[in-house]
Structure formats: C-alpha cells, structure tokens
Fold this protein.
Amino acid sequence: MDLIQSIIMGLVQGLSEFLPISSSAHLVLTSNFYKVFKGIEIVQESNQEIFLDIMLHLGTLIAVLIFFRKEIWEIIKALKSGNKDDKNFKTGIYIIIGTFISVAVAYPLKDVASFLVFKPAIVGILLIFTGSLLLFSERFSKVNNKINLKNSIFIAIAQGLAALPGFSRSGLTIATGLLSGIERAEAARYSFLLSIPIILGASMLYPLITIDVKEVVTYNWTAIIVGTIVSGISGYLCIKYFLKFVSKFSLSVFGYYCLAVGIFSLIFFRSTL
C-alpha cells in the first residue's frame, strides 16, 4: 500500500459512504482495479489494507459526528430526560433498537463479507441489486408516513444486510424508508444518524478485539493518516451537499450509476466468479 492508493481510497470512502452507491463495494473495486493496473494478483486483502479500510471508516465517522453534532446532542438530552413524547427521544430509541437489529443481521454475514473482498464480480452483482432497488423505490414510493418503530425496524434490517459489499448501506436504508412512505430527505437524515453506532463499532470496537499491535506499528502510517483525513473531509462535504440534493431531486441517477458500475465490474472481473 502506498500514499497514492490511500488518498484514492480515502476519497472513494468519503464520497461513497453517504451516497447510495455502496462504499464497501467501491473500496473493493477501487483496490482491485488498482491491483490490476499495478500488475498485482487479486487475492485476499493484507492486514494493512484491512486496517486502512477501518481507519477510512473512522474518518467518515468523525465527519458524520461533526455534521450532526446538534442533532446528536438533542437526542442525548432527550434520552436523559426520558420524555417519551419528545421526537428526539423516539428517534434515539429507534436508533438504539435499530443498532441491535442491524448487528444481529450483519454479524452472521461477516465471513461472507470477508470472502467478497476478493470476489469483485459478485460485488458487481450486488451493486446491480442496489441500483435496481433505488429505481424501484423512487418509482413506487408515496410520502404518507413518518419514522416509527415498525419502519425503523425494516430500515435496521436493511442496514444489517449492507454488511455485504455491493449492498449500499445508505442506498438500502433510504430505499426502505421511501418504500415505507418516509420523505426522501428525512429518510436520508435518519439513515446517517443510524449509521453512527455501526460505523463506530466497525471502525473502533471490533478492531480493538482483533488488532495485532506488533504488526500495526510496521504499517505505512503516513499513508493511513493522510487517507483518513481525506476520507473525513470528503465525507463531510458529501453529507452537506447530498442532503441538499435529495431534498430537491430523485435518487434515480444513483440507481443508474450502480447498475452501470455493477455491470462493468461483473464483466471486467468475470474471472473472479
């Protein structure tokens, strides 16, 4: 892993974490494209590359925490007050319940997700599914509902399934929100807030259990730190402008994008099927 690769990966992570195009798929595809053009064999990621992925997610976690700092603080205060009629209290409860559901769905898929890291053609197939779901949700959704316990559970299940690279976390959760009758911008904001505990667990708690300190100190830390900073900055800007976009425009453009990238990846990496 070199500095150029980490910068590219950081930019890809920051932009794709919050756009409905699957950040994990884009990290897998970008890494494998980079290997192809560098003449490196496509094999399972090294521990250093996996650690870089974790740090890039930490960068986007910091971005979402900074951007939604006021909303997060209001939710924390509401949970402390225990006022069940407060909208922020309900949102906090939905996020807590949703996090447990997401983990319950995602944990059994962790080995499959690790396997798909070096199966970019299959990732392309899952990306095609994401694009199709986005187009379907835009075509058949009707705004007639608010976030409640029932639809928050469905959104949490969708987030758990997004443990598989190619299934966009924001894509599946926003699409599920749309199909539940939630307004597009509200579904996006809830999707981002729901992502915080999951990204936190993936980027900090899980690594603490599995990290090999003796190996980590040998990594290219200049590349890792630069990649993390790039991920955070691009992630913050992505949230800011994506929320403005979804308040005015359809998500269909992202659906078509996922279809195009998925089909191209399936063809380009067909040997990895």
